[in-house]
Structure formats: structure tokens, C-alpha cells
Amino acid sequence: MFSPEGPTLRELAAQALSSVERGYDLLAPKFDRTPYRTPDRVLDSVAAALAPLGPFDAGLDLCCGTGAGVDVLTRLCRGRVTGVDFSAGMLDVARERAPSPGPEVSWVRGDARALPFGAEFDLVVSFGAFGHFLPRELPGLFTQVRSVLRPGGSFAFPVAAPPRPGSRGYWALLGFDAAMRVRNALWRPPFVMYYRTFRLGNVGRELSRAGFRADLHALPEFGYRPDGSPRVRMVVARAAGGGTGISRPAAA
């Protein structure tokens, strides 16, 4: 559908009518040839923005998929790097394409809402996975992330500004989310994937409740909107000290 090497419309339909886990098992062999894979431009920008905040030792890619975020961590971490995902199919592809040489990389099958780790990471990243979590799941998700971070550790992820109301992008995302809600109302098991539920204001509140203080970093490679705000930001959350919530430095 997307390219000669990508999934067909029939394959995408089979994925959409499956559970999230089973759907990604089916899509895994062709996932990297779809628009769903985080673009290298985003990965490179986040890696460059995180580099001055290091050095980092152990890193975790949360909901790692085929391992694009692990590639970022291998550039930033001096010690071991881990990818965790609940799709066995995605992990199989990740193992096959793992970078070498570099830090020790391990792949773990697990649910982000019940992470099978102790406080052993200095940096946790995640790319493109938050649409698979309902808003009510964010408190538990962020609490899990904090539980696996060492003191002083960071949780980082990019967030794109929402499309301007009335724009083509706005209606496209609204239509997709509406279609998914209808699908999930009529078909079981549900396939949770929504583009408009991960809102920066709500994210800031839930990070605060989980004990984080977050800073926003503009990713200038993606430009600015007419009001001067960045089109893409990186959130960097650390265990809270004197305050909580999201602060907005001048660059953001």
C-alpha cells in the first residue's frame, strides 16, 4: 500500500481487526517500510538534543518496536541498552537489525504498564507509542517509568504540536480517531491507537502526579508555527525535587 515492499491493504485490514499485540506481530516484517516507523530525522534530532544532557550509562527504549529508538540509545549510552515491547514479532525483527558493534543490547518482551525491571536505567526514551495508551492509563505508565529510573535519571520523548483546527491534518487525525472509536465499539478485541489523546497539557499533569519535573526543549530542525511555538518539542522529565509539572524555557 505504501511502497512495493510495504504491507498491502489486505494486510493492514487484518492488522486493524486484530488486537494491538497480534496486529503488530502481523505487521512486524514490513513495519520499517511504513510511515508508522519514526523517521530518522526525528531520531537524529532527539539524539542531538539529548547528547549535551549526558553522559548516560544504561538506557531503555520503551515500546521499542523494531528498535529505532535503541539506535538512538546506542549513540548516547556508555553501558547496556535495552528494548522492551509486548509484540514478539516486532522484537524478532529488532534482534535481526540490531546495530553492531556498540553497547550491549538486550531485548525484553514485556508490557510498559508492568515493566519487569528495577531502578536500573539512566535514560528512558519512547517514540511514537503513546497513542496506544488511553488517557486513564498515563498515570500508571509514567509511574512505571519512574520506578525503573535511577536517581537523577531522565525520561525523554518528542511531541509534535497539534495541527491547526480546520487544516487538512486536523481533519485527517480527527477522522482516523473517529474511525477507531467506531471500530472499537463494534469489534473485539479493541485496537487502541488514537492520535489526539496525548495532549501536552494533560501529559504535564500526569508527569507531575508521577513525581516528575519536565522541561521542554524545542527541536528547531522542524521549524516554528506562525505563533512562534515549535512544531516539535522534546519533553525531558526527571524525578521532581522542589517543583513539579512542565517548565517552558525560552527556547521552547
Automatic annotation (TrEMBL):
One of its GO terms (biological process) is methylation. Keywords: Methyltransferase, S-adenosyl-L-methionine, Transferase. It comes from the Bacteria. The keyword Transferase applies. The keyword Protease does not apply. InterPro entries: Methyltransf_25 (IPR041698), SAM-dependent_MTases_sf (IPR029063). Residues 60-153 form the Methyltransferase domain. GO terms for molecular function: methyltransferase activity. This is Class I SAM-dependent methyltransferase. It comes from Streptomyces olivaceus.
